[in-house]
């Protein structure tokens, strides 16, 4: 707030009758959980109270939104800096509120990831799912298998220069995310989506021959060699090293679109890999195809199906949910931020259809998957795949204005859901994004203040 207001805003532990007061603990924080907060706005002071630091952080994001949009600018603005009076008592609907960034199809630097983290934090997203490996690129250094990053990470979609994160790079992303109360969820996709690994080490292939690096966008053609012992040495080493770098509880093992792996091999692979994740102290997340194997106790299945997904596949996921598997909901025709808004959108894909702002917002995670108990839903996630993305501006164009809708589904109670009210509130975010330099899409169904 200092640059825009020009105020010195000194931080002090002394009490006072004005200013911004951040208070941990107290009777008024009971029932708010680890992330909730209470914000009280009076004549000369704003008090934010929370049981835990994450709650204070989320309360400050709300304070930012209550202030005029010009507070986000980096140069001094005239003000005045008024907010409405009253009290807000606020806590999240779901504990898991995620966004996924695919750094495998196209590589994004540490700085670009940090920029996205800042944007996610404004809307109380608390999980950053990093898709670190795929056919087109391996993006994290593994000491025991160094060619994964140096060779497997050397290219990307279209054949451009790729890249990878050193362990220190990854630690910095984890640290920065934690400073904004986001937990990093790393994903190593397997047994399919593995061409970058197969190209790096010939022994991972059943025929012992390494395929060439791949820069296209088709899926489903690659597979680790399930019968080979070296496959599980590889998996153990990769999971061990990534788990050691990751303080969060979750590790994502992919499992989607393994079309080149037989069903029997898929089940055998997942039965051997899930215990490895547990051995290194992490909880398994897999794409919802994991429910076609034997999800371990406590596992989360991330559902990415859509309206055209077959009834049998949906039923399989619902059955697993009834037997204790938790769900993260990312329906592709609702929550995939890489889907085009409409036929004229210059970026993105459309295999799941077009996803306008209303479609991304207007659904209820608790009632979305027929047959799955509402209590099985751990939360929601907005994935952003990067086949067509190369810049931060590209990321922002597809994420905004849809991301805040997914964030609201994860945070706010279902009873407050109302498209008419939401589109007005969303429109008011436009000047804030302008001030922050976010390159958002001027969706026609949103009444932006400037009429565009």
Summary, kept brief:
With 452 residues, the chain is α/β, with parallel strands linked by helices.
Question: How would you explain this protein's 3D organization?
Answer:
The chain is α/β, with parallel strands linked by helices. 31% of the residues lie in helices and 15% in strands. The chain is built from 15 helices and 14 strands. The protein has helices spanning 2-5, 53-66, 110-121, 147-150, 167-179, 195-200, 229-245, 263-279, 311-322, 332-335, 357-361, 392-399, 403-411, 419-427, 430-436, and strands at residues 19-24, 37-41, 45-50, 86-90, 96-102, 127-131, 133-134, 137-138, 183-187, 250-252, 283-287, 300-303, 326-329, 377-384. The strands form three sheets. Strands 9-6-5-14-13-12-11-10 form an eight-stranded parallel sheet. The protein has a four-stranded mixed sheet with strand order 1-3-2-4, with helices on one face. A two-stranded antiparallel ribbon has the order 7-8. α3 (110-121) packs parallel to α5. The longest helix is centred in the middle third of the chain and has 17 residues, at 229-245. The radius of gyration is 22 Å and the shape is globular.
Please specify the SSE layout and strand pairing.
Blueprint: H1 2-5, E1 19-24, E2 37-41, E3 45-50, H2 53-66, E4 86-90, E5 96-102, H3 110-121, E6 127-131, E7 133-134, E8 137-138, H4 147-150, H5 167-179, E9 183-187, H6 195-200, H7 229-245, E10 250-252, H8 263-279, E11 283-287, E12 300-303, H9 311-322, E13 326-329, H10 332-335, H11 357-361, E14 377-384, H12 392-399, H13 403-411, H14 419-427, H15 430-436
Parallel strand pairs: 1-3, 5-6, 5-14, 6-9, 10-11, 11-12, 12-13, 13-14
Antiparallel strand pairs: 2-3, 2-4, 7-8
Helix pairs in contact: 3-5, 7-8
